[in-house]
Amino acid sequence: MKLTLVTGLTGLLLLGTIVELLRRRQLREKYGMLWLAVLVVVIPLSLFPRLLDNVAELLGVASGVSLVLFLGIVFLLLVCVHLSWEVSALEEETRTLAEDFALLRAEIDADRAARDELVSTDG
Amino acid sequence: MVNGKRTLIIIPALNESGSIADVVGEVRGELPGVDVLVVDDGSTDRTAAVATAAGATVAKLPYNLGVGGAMRLGYRYARDHNYDVAIQIDADGQHDPRYVPKLVDLLDDNDLVIGARFAGEGDYTVRGPRRWAMVMLSAVLSRVAHTKLTDTTSGFRAANRRVIDMFATWYPAEYLGDTVETLVHTARRGYRIRQVPVAMRKRMAGTPSHSPARAMIYLGRAFAVLTLALIRR
Ligand SMILES: Nc1nc2c(ncn2[C@@H]2O[C@H](COP(=O)(O)OP(=O)(O)OP(=O)(O)O)[C@@H](O)[C@H]2O)c(=O)[nH]1
Ligand SMILES: [Mg+2]
């Protein structure tokens, strides 16, 4: 009973945090939706840990709790992979930005040099 | 100038080299004295070059930011160059620039004016889940904005200075955020929104961004975005 209370409260706390972050626009929609979906699965499980026992039996896993642990680890791994993918995309984007910036600076410098040239030949 | 107001037409474009020249040409022909800004959102075709040749100012983004990202750039440009009115028009030729003076007229008493299909003019129709999504969005957003809105995802909108200032600093880049969320946000802050019936034409060239297969996903996302927009501050 005590355990259910602890896990249930943890789940609700997480839910509250995510909803609040979304409300304050600190979390992009796509990530917010992902975590909300996870919580929709996790909260009932935290209240009724035996919920998955049938599924576990079907898959040949000894208990629902180990199944949850297994699925949790797989899910976290997937999240890590996804984040690496996002970071790679971001790195590619900053690289493009840096190039654009350097090209712009080169153009401005060339313009300025040309103008200075004109001024010195005039004067 | 449209009705004595300095007006900027903002056209977000992604791979629209087939239609952008005609659209820019038509806008400049129908509305002499307006400025046209094409925001090229990382197109892989010749959109930027074609638009420049047609007489538009082109802002070229280094990579794709989506319609919302392109539009915030457009509104920033409008704010920094002191325009009275900024009008968003699609690059595919579906919006008829002859409606622009009508939109601008209504800005005297409103802050954001939307050119809406399904409001009497024209015969544009949509079916299936995409239609259900539109009906749901219209019903909810009409209540939030205290005005009848039948086409909440329309990309044909006119904004006055107050709204330009707001959109220049806040404009979501997320899918559907650029239409649905901006409406909720604008209405919540007490700005007046109005719609004007417009006839919608067939796109001139290129491919539409929505396929029928994605209609169901569209419905789900529309629901999610709307819920989120309503609980957000
Ligand atoms: N900046 C930018 N513009 C885009 C992007 N995707 C589409 N657009 C532009 O947004 C406008 C509307 O796109 P459409 O594909 O016609 O979408 P729609 O009008 O809602 O759908 P249809 O009824 O199928 O034409 C066009 O001017 C496109 O060029 C994008 O990723 N970035
Ligand atoms: Mg279109």
UniProtKB/TrEMBL annotation, chain A:
<protein>
    <submittedName>
        <fullName>DUF2304 domain-containing protein</fullName>
    </submittedName>
</protein>
<dbReference type="Pfam" id="PF10066">
    <property type="entry name" value="DUF2304"/>
</dbReference>
<dbReference type="InterPro" id="IPR019277">
    <property type="entry name" value="DUF2304"/>
</dbReference>
<keyword id="KW-1133">Transmembrane helix</keyword>
<feature type="transmembrane region" description="Helical">
    <location>
        <begin position="6"/>
        <end position="22"/>
    </location>
</feature>
<feature type="transmembrane region" description="Helical">
    <location>
        <begin position="58"/>
        <end position="85"/>
    </location>
</feature>
<keyword id="KW-0472">Membrane</keyword>
<feature type="transmembrane region" description="Helical">
    <location>
        <begin position="34"/>
        <end position="52"/>
    </location>
</feature>
<keyword id="KW-0812">Transmembrane</keyword>
UniProtKB/TrEMBL annotation, chain B:
<dbReference type="InterPro" id="IPR029044">
    <property type="entry name" value="Nucleotide-diphossugar_trans"/>
</dbReference>
<protein>
    <submittedName>
        <fullName>Glycosyltransferase family 2 protein</fullName>
    </submittedName>
</protein>
<feature type="domain" description="Glycosyltransferase 2-like">
    <location>
        <begin position="9"/>
        <end position="164"/>
    </location>
</feature>
<dbReference type="InterPro" id="IPR050256">
    <property type="entry name" value="Glycosyltransferase_2"/>
</dbReference>
<dbReference type="InterPro" id="IPR001173">
    <property type="entry name" value="Glyco_trans_2-like"/>
</dbReference>
<comment type="similarity">
    <text>Belongs to the glycosyltransferase 2 family.</text>
</comment>
<dbReference type="Pfam" id="PF00535">
    <property type="entry name" value="Glycos_transf_2"/>
</dbReference>
